[in-house]
C-alpha cells in the first residue's frame, strides 16, 4: 500500500514522503491515527506543489537569516539592567533579554530558545553568545551589559 506521511514516523520517514507499507499497518494504524493518508494521483500533485512552495520558502528564509546574522554580528547588543555599586546585577541577564535585544536590533522576531549564552551573566561587562537563526546559520553576538541608572 502506498501512503503519504503527514507526520514524521520513526523508522519510516518524514512528513510529505511517499512510502510503501503493508496494507494492515497503513489501514489499521497510520491512517486512523492521522500519521498518513492514502496515496492518489491528485494527492501526489498536491504534495509536489507543497514541496515546491517549501523549497521556495526555505530559500527565502535562508537569505533572511544571512541578513539578520550580518546585522547581529556587526553590532553589539546593549542590555541595561539594575546593578549594585560593585557591578553585580540584581537578578541576571536571561536568554529572553538577549532575544529581545536581538529582535529589536534586527527587526526580526527571535525566540529565546534560539539564544545560547557561553556563561551565565550576573554582572556588568562584555559577554559572548550565539543565536541560531536557521538550521545552517548561527550568529556569534557580542553582549554589553550596562548598569541602568
The CA-CA distance between the termini, in Å, is 69 Å
Principal-axis shape: elongated
Mean pLDDT: 91
Structural class: alpha+beta
Output the radius of gyration: 23 Å
* Beta-strand residue percentage: 25-35%
- Segments where pLDDT lies below 50 for 5+ residues? none
Instruction: Output the helix-strand order.
Output: EEHEHEEHEEEE
- Numbering strands along the chain, what is their spatial order in the largest sheet? 4-9-8-6
The largest pleated sheet is described as:
4 strands, mixed
Please tally the helical runs, counting DSSP H or I stretches of 4 or more residues: 3
Helix content: 25-40%
- Beta strands, count: 9
Protein name: Large ribosomal subunit protein bL9
Function: Binds to the 23S rRNA.
Organism: Arcanobacterium hippocoleae
InterPro entries: Ribosomal_bL9 (IPR000244), Ribosomal_bL9/RNase_H1_N (IPR009027), Ribosomal_bL9_bac/chp (IPR020594), Ribosomal_bL9_C (IPR020069), Ribosomal_bL9_C_sf (IPR036791), Ribosomal_bL9_N (IPR020070), Ribosomal_bL9_N_sf (IPR036935)
Structural summary, described in words:
This protein is of the alpha+beta class. It has three helices and nine strands; from the N terminus they run E-E-H-E-H-E-E-H-E-E-E-E. It has helices spanning 23-30, 41-74, 95-106; strands at residues 2-5, 18-20, 36-38, 76-81, 88-93, 115-117, 121-123, 125-132, 138-147. The strands form three sheets. The protein has a four-stranded mixed β-sheet with strand order 4-9-8-6. The chain has a three-stranded antiparallel β-sheet with strand order 2-1-3, with helices on one face. The N and C termini lie far apart (69 Å). The mean pLDDT is 91.
